[in-house]
Amino acid sequence: MDLWNIFAWIFAIIILSVTYWYMTIPKNLPPGAAGLPIVGYLPFFNLQPHITLDKLAQKFGNIYYVYMGSQLSLVLNDFESIKQAFLTQGDTFAGRCHLTEFEDINGEISGIIMTDGEFWKQHRRFILRNLRDSGVGKLTIEPLILNEIQYFLTELRKHDGKGHFDLKHYLSASLTNNINILLHGKRYDYAHPMVADTLQAIKDFEEIGQVLPLETFFPWLKPLLIKLNTKRMAKLVNLRTAGDERMASVIKETASTFVAGQTDNYVQAFLNERNNRLKHNPNEAIFTDKGLIAIGLDLTNAGTDTSASTLAWTAMYMAKYPKIQRKVQDEIDSVIGQREPSYNDRNNTPYVEAIINEIHRIVSLVPVSVPHRVMHDTTLCGYNIPKDTMVLPNLRAVHYDQKLWGDPENFRPERFIGSNGECLKPEYLLPFSIGKRACAGEPLARMELYLYFVSLMQNFTFLEPEGLELSFESIPGFLRQPKIRLISIKSR
């Protein structure tokens, strides 16, 4: 076979591949971008995916499809389409994508964040009930959080007037303790391995897992891609194994003193629930030791980094906007004074609430929420959506929609203050998402954000670091983390 014949065969294969690629795109999809054969639109994605999704929305509208490798994905860029999908058709859009790397790392049990089905349903229901019973709604957990805040403030005072420091480190340590108390009733010094190792693991996982692995989009190449990336997989497996061991040790310690009927913390409530189930079904397979470890890690990881990052961003905005900081301090001084705050105070401190809401909006900590999966063929906004389509809710697009906010690029907490001075709560503010996949820890997170922010404003004024200009630029990753995390404080 001469060279021209070889080129002819290669050309024919390329033409056939391209033709097959476009012919297999499902019919009556919304407008969108198929991209290139095999790789789809992946080569054109920015390291911060929401930027690419925003640009595609300008071309295709607020609901469109995009191929990410061989994975068909549906992008929702406005509140109405997200609402229709996650509220009107909540069950249909409540699935989780099968991210092969997570499955390999976690094994058969993956907690509740990355799973769906009966395990997810029962454990999510149990977590919500336990949070309610442990007092997030009745405020009985509030004294424990306020006690932890005092330890936190003591650490911060060491930096009073002494230059810039990493506030998020102390926030993460303190918030981890809140989860520890909720899980097993015990707090630790910030230098204790239970805290330090957890924070290091969260940081390491963020650095390694900033970008989803290619086998997520090319599952048929998984054996080859894993061999080419053994170091990454080994690091992730080691992180998960160490996390399992830490969580197993505290569960074992808590279980050693457990008495039937105790429900003072999550582990006790879990053990009590499992014992009751075993009485009726000796083959109980939902409430297991492995399941408890996985959920404990989910609650720790998700409950620490999100709230710590939100509060760190809040401090930066206060330092950058001193007039707004002074105004919120005046409100706190007038309503609360120097006594400990209560979560009930939020009803009388609308500007505090407005600032927290505006931080949620302008930061959009999770620009694109964890991908959903369509559980069966359906229609949305008049378009056909096939089963197993990946769904990407672009929450940041909603938070920057000019039709909803007018001037979304501006930091303006007053947008949340009503004509009678009350704090507005628009349904299109989505920091915790909505529907069946909304953050299960939302009640706890809201309480923490309020109590920590008020306590910080009572005790300190945030300042820009000397010689550094605060930047609101973020580094690539699932969460929007500031490039510069340093801040200065001055006692009031």
TrEMBL record:
Heme binds at C439. Coiled coil: none annotated. The gene is cyp3200b3. This is Cytochrome P450 3200B3. SUPFAM superfamilies: Cytochrome P450. It comes from the Eukaryota. Pfam families: p450 (PF00067). Belongs to the cytochrome P450 family. The chain crosses the membrane at residues 6-23. The keyword Ribonucleoprotein does not apply. GO terms for biological process: organic acid metabolic process; xenobiotic metabolic process. One of its GO terms (molecular function) is iron ion binding. It comes from Chamberlinius hualienensis. GO terms for cellular component: cytoplasm. InterPro entries: Cyt_P450 (IPR001128), Cyt_P450_CS (IPR017972), Cyt_P450_E_grp-I (IPR002401), Cyt_P450_sf (IPR036396), Cytochrome_P450_fam2 (IPR050182). Keywords: Heme, Iron, Membrane, Metal-binding, Monooxygenase, Oxidoreductase, Transmembrane, Transmembrane helix. Its cofactor is heme.
